[in-house]
Amino acid sequence: MRRPIIAREGWPFAAALLILALLALLVHWALALLPALLTLFVLWFFRDPERPIPEGERLVVSPADGRVMFVREVEEPRFMGGRAILVSIFLSVFDVHINRAPVAGEVRYREYVPGQFLAAWDETVGEVNERAYLGLVSGPHRVLVSQVAGLLARRIITWPQVGDRLQRGERFGLIRFGSCTQLWLPPGSEVLVGPGDRVAGGKTVIGRLPQ
């Protein structure tokens, strides 16, 4: 699905700041400088570029732009039902905040969990912060992704409902103003990224599902 280059979810913020800048300009140009710069920042923050989606069997693409914080084996009882490989990605305010489906599949699980708003680079945010889960079934495999609010984020947006089908790399939501995105893969998956690696949502291949 093609979307505007500036996500619609950012239009109200940009419009409000632009009006404020125009009103300030009527008083003095210097007063309009800050809201004008904030307008440009909001437009840039909500950018939603088109991405070339890699093709190939069993490929898993990054669900978000950002930097990999850690990769580890964990227990995941919500949807994976046991052991899983967790890939955690930190998004700064300078990253694109559109989330994309890591694999093609059917949405079988969706849950919103209220929580705190700790800094998104804290390794515990995935357990205590506000977050939303989306579970996909791709062939015989289950894949879970979560959108985690950060210190500045106060709104998680997730569009698909249970029963919807997503294509690999398809947009499924966004998080406003700094956050973390986490991905759980089934045991035996090949992970191709490590801590410190930069990834691009829908574009970077971060792993392969088991045979």
TrEMBL record:
Q: How does it sit in the membrane?
A: Peripheral membrane protein
Cited InterPro entries: PS_Dcarbxylase, PSD-A
Pfam families with a match to the protein in the record: PS_Dcarbxylase
Q: What does the PTM comment state?
A: Is synthesized initially as an inactive proenzyme. Formation of the active enzyme involves a self-maturation process in which the active site pyruvoyl group is generated from an internal serine residue via an autocatalytic post-translational modification. Two non-identical subunits are generated from the proenzyme in this reaction, and the pyruvate is formed at the N-terminus of the alpha chain, which is derived from the carboxyl end of the proenzyme.
Keyword check for Ribosomal protein, yes or no.
no
Positions of post-translational Pyruvic acid (Ser) modification: 179
Principal subcellular localization:
membrane
A single GO molecular function term of this UniProt record: phosphatidylserine decarboxylase activity
Q: How cofactor binds (record note)?
A: Binds 1 pyruvoyl group covalently per subunit.
Classify the source by domain of life.
Answer: Bacteria
Q: Which residues form the active site?
A: 179
Q: Which family does it belong to?
A: Belongs to the phosphatidylserine decarboxylase family. PSD-A subfamily.
Q: Could you tell me what this protein does?
A: Catalyzes the formation of phosphatidylethanolamine (PtdEtn) from phosphatidylserine (PtdSer).
Per its record, how is this protein called by name? Phosphatidylserine decarboxylase proenzyme
